[in-house]
Design goal:
Layout: E1 3-6, H1 16-31, E2 35-40, H2 50-63, E3 72-73, H3 78-90, E4 94-97, H4 101-113, E5 138-141, E6 148-153, E7 157-162, H5 163-166, E8 171-173, H6 181-191, E9 196-200, H7 207-217, E10 223-227, E11 230-231, H8 247-253, H9 257-265, H10 279-285, E12 296-297, H11 300-312, H12 316-323, H13 336-344, H14 350-361, H15 369-375, H16 380-393, H17 400-414, H18 418-430, H19 438-460
The structure holds glutamic acid.
Length: 462
């Protein structure tokens, strides 16, 4: 059974790069009818917070990504880590190191002065004398002192590390007893049965150390997939300057989970030239062997395009529900179908949809000066008056086509082109020259509001 996991450190919010590897892990587990676990790596008390862990869990909830089992918090697993540290001590695979801070920094300086790699010198590796007084020891693991460690990576192929260049007997428990990062990651992955680790390639350099831990404890190695980073257009690692990195900021901007997840799955993975993937298709088609070897480029135009696509294809009743979060309550509006049809074609995000709806529903409080200059002419008032009289004389006006018929009548009676009345009427109704079809706008706001808006524009320009 395939078991994957997402293991964020709760230092702030859920980063979109993290979400992408979480999505890959989720899809691969689902495709194989396996398990996808969520583990919060909250052992760094100075940098981690409960709020940040909650923010990650909330983001998962918003996205509809469900994890199997309980969430695992590393902060509650000290006893487990202590047990495995003790096992390594008992088996002679780890040892107490009594080097003081001063001694360590002296060693470091000497190595730097000699232009050598800074590393622990193994002083206490085979120590059997009397330990120095007044020093609480750290615990180091015995790492191989020669040879190579090969990370068999599903994305990058075999990555070979020379032990001499990268390893020393690294600390697995600090003097205060707290276990270190690479130790707990390896222990947890092994105990949770994680057999496919998909994570960012910024972690590749940690993997040899984790392999040392796996081997010392006799755990089976998982498959690793190190996913290249997301870059900006300049080829640099994505930062806040390139766009939002907090997943929840995308919700605030009005993107839906389906658009965001579709956007992310294509950052670093492809299936032919297909761009649109439903969740079912992603699960069916995703395979980590197709993850690209090179960095992917973040492009918000693509996200907007996907988002517009999904909005257009979302049923109106669902849109009305989603728009509540953007302060647009349409649930009991009798023309909500016409309104949503009119705006869903024109918006890239739910937030934009809400703004467009408000522009239609709210009586204009000002008129765009440029539009007035361009399209509100001397004869506009008489045409608007003629149209308004028609509207008020009509008892039954409901559909866009009802209003369209009235407009056609005015146009033919006055012997003018459609634009002649259309443009000033648009200014009256919306305060500007852009927006959806006027017949739809009038059907949405109704007869009285249509007359009111025409009266208002006439008064403002008399
Ligand atoms: N906690 C690490 C991070 O948030 C991830 C560790 C891993 O995936 O192995 O970057």
């Amino acid at each position: 059974m395939v078991v994957t996991r997402f293991a964020p450190s709760p230092t702030g919010y859920l980063h979109i790069g993290g979400l992408r590897t979480a999505l890959f892990s989720y899809l691969w587990a689902k495709k194989n009818k396996g398990k996808f676990f969520l583990r919060i790596e909250d052992t760094d008390k100075a940098r981690n917070s409960v709020e940040a862990a909650e923010a990650i869990v909330n983001a998962f909830h918003w996205l509809g990504l469900t994890h199997d089992g309980e969430i695992i918090y590393q902060s509650s697993r000290d006893e487990i880590y202590a047990k495995y540290i003790q096992q390594l001590l008992d088996e002679g695979k780890a040892y107490y190191c009594y080097m003081s801070k001063e001694e360590l920094s002296e060693l470091r300086e000497t190595q730097m002065a000699a232009k050598e790699r800074t590393m622990y010198n193994g002083k206490y590796r085979d120590f059997d004398g009397t330990p120095p007084e007044g020093i609480t020891p750290a615990i180091r693991i015995k790492a191989p002192q020669s040879g190579t460690i090969t990370v068999k990576d599903g994305v990058k192929g075999d990555v070979i590390f020379n032990c001499l260049d990268i390893l020393d007997d690294f600390i697995i428990a600090r003097a205060d007893g707290s276990p270190t990062y690479n130790f707990v990651v390896a222990v947890d992955d092994a105990l949770m049965g994680v057999n496919e680790v998909i994570r960012g390639d910024d972690h590749l350099s940690n993997t040899p150390k984790q392999i040392v831990v796996y081997e010392a404890l006799g755990f089976e190695l998982p498959k690793f997939y190190h996913v290249p980073m997301i870059h900006n257009h300049e080829g640099k690692k994505l930062s806040k300057r390139d766009g939002a990195t907090d997943v929840m900021a995308y919700k605030e901007m009005g993107y839906t989970p389906e658009a965001l997840l579709n956007f992310l799955v294509r950052l670093g993975w492809s299936h032919g030239d297909q761009e649109i993937f439903s969740m079912e298709e992603m699960i069916e088609l995703f395979n980590p062997k197709d993850i690209n070897k090179s960095a992917s480029i973040y492009n918000t135009d693509k996200l907007d395009w996907l988002s517009a696509h999904y909005l257009k294809n979302t049923p109106n009743c669902e849109l009305a529900e989603l728009l509540i979060q953007y302060d647009l309550i349409l649930t009991s509006h009798d023309k909500k179908e016409i309104l949503l049809d009119a705006i869903k074609e024109r918006a890239k995000t739910l937030k934009e949809m809400a703004l467009l709806a408000k522009e239609i529903l709210e009586t204009p409080s000002f008129y765009d000066e440029k539009a007035v200059k361009k399209a509100y002419k001397e004869d506009s008032a008489s045409m608007l008056n003629a149209f308004s009289a028609k509207v008020s004389a009509c008892a039954e006006l409901h559909l866009p086509s009802d209003y369209h018929t009235l407009m056609e009548e005015v146009v033919s009676e006055l012997g003018i082109g459609f634009g002649k009345i259309g443009q000033p009427l648009r200014i009256a109704l919306l305060g500007k020259l852009s927006g959806p079809g006027l017949d739809s706008v009038m059907a949405i706001i109704g007869k009285d509001e249509t007359i009111l808006r025409i009266t208002n524009v006439l008064a403002a320009h008399s």
